[in-house]
Design goal:
alpha/beta, Rossmann fold, 6-stranded mixed sheet, 4-stranded antiparallel sheet, 10 strands
């Protein structure tokens, strides 16, 4: 079980996340919603320890994640994989190698990085990567450069990469914000498949209420860094949305859509591979 105890993050005088308390059972799929600036991304980055909390604790299986350092922190980032809005694939590399990057944290220190860059992965690792790609109808793209794929395909490659970490939790930060509706459905179907079939806990930031209701077991609604709602999708009624955000559901979705501003994709995420 993942437990957040009074998790808070301040940036100077601004409190981005304010006293968040959550209990997430193993195998649950949780959708986190909120306007831009509500603290959704900061919350996920704190759970993965890409951003350190100002206050509070993160517990997983009784272990204090907020106290981890060095090798123990690297192990946590292997167990707790992140998927980013802009995919964070190495565009010039082929799809198979991008997926195999998910094995880096299973190789200690610099040698793991060097051998991976030299494509000296084991036959077992390559088989794992092909199996993951085949699972999401991507096996035929294995030798293509990542930059030849559509956005939906690239995000599914990112999911395959995450699976090769053999994680216990997947954190998906706005995974469909840059995608058209058809590709968005394909990616959400893949995340739900991983959750249902593999039993992996999934926390995902979303900007459409209907998507959260359709795919998630539970919705957490944030506003100004605070959790304003935490419960089953059916309980987040239109009246409750208006009470929290002061607008109708349609207006909320329109505002959230307008606020999504895709960032320039990077070859590798800043801290995203979590090698240190």
């Amino acid at each position: 079980m993942l437990e957040l105890q009074g998790l808070t993050r301040r940036f100077g005088s601004v409190t981005a996340v304010d006293q968040v308390r959550l209990l997430v059972p193993e195998g649950q799929m949780v959708g986190v919603i909120g306007r831009s600036g509500a603290g959704k991304s900061t919350l996920l980055r704190m759970i993965n320890r890409l951003t350190d909390p100002s206050e509070g604790r993160i517990l997983f299986g009784g272990q204090d994640v907020t106290a981890l350092k060095g090798a123990a922190l690297r192990r946590w980032r292997t167990d707790c994989s992140m998927i980013f809005q802009q995919f964070n694939l190495v565009q010039r590399l082929d799809v198979l190698t991008n997926v195999l990057v998910g094995r880096l944290n299973h190789r200690p220190g610099v040698m793991g990085t060097l051998t991976s860059l030299l494509k000296m992965f084991t036959a077992e690792e390559r088989a794992m990567a092909i199996q993951a790609l085949d699972r999401f109808d991507l096996a035929e793209t294995a030798l293509q450069r990542a930059d030849t794929l559509s956005g939906g395909q690239q995000q599914r490659v990112a999911i395959c990469r995450a699976l090769l970490q053999e994680p216990k939790i997947i954190l998906a930060d706005e995974p469909i914000a840059s995608l058209d509706p058809r590709n968005a459905k394909t990616v959400m179907d893949a995340l739900r498949q991983v959750n249902r079939e593999d039993g992996i806990t999934v926390l995902t930031n979303l900007h459409h209420l209907d998507t959260a209701r359709q795919y998630c077991d539970r919705i957490v609604a944030m506003q100004s860094g605070r959790v304003m709602f935490d419960g089953p999708p059916a309980a987040l009624t239109g009246a409750r949305v208006r009470e929290i955000y002061g607008v109708s559901e349609d207006e909320f979705d329109d505002q959230a859509e307008a606020a999504v501003s895709p960032k320039t994709p990077a070859g590798l995420p800043q801290g995203g591979l979590a090698l240190a």
